[in-house]
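#onboarding

Welcome to the new folks! Below is a worked example of what a typical request in this channel looks like: someone posts a single protein sequence, and someone else replies with the predicted structure as tokens. Don't worry about understanding the tokens yet, we'll cover that in week two.

Example request:
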Amino acid sequence: MADAALFVGWGESIHGREGLGLQVFAETLAYYTSLQEEGRIESFEPVLLAPHGGGLEGFIVLRGERATLDEIRASDEFERLTLKAQLVVREVGVVNALIGDGLSHGIELYQEALGAAAI
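Example response:
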């Protein structure tokens, strides 16, 4: 079961590059599909947000094991697709996240840190 996730978020399209943005999005989804078929990630979910007055327009959550997600994030293919996305949309961000058992472990570490910080 997945204990970690990668959150890949983006903002508005750069004017004049919307068509290219759709191509990069399709290429990215194909890559994530191949990762899932190979068993390297458990799943992924793309989300497009309704207009809400904020900068985040959409995101994709990849679910898997932390070590494997770290390898994927450091891979040339992931970096290449992230760079391509930065050329067509604003505010691309990739953030590590904890889910499942990883969430419990993260809370335990936080509680330890709280105890250590108490004076």
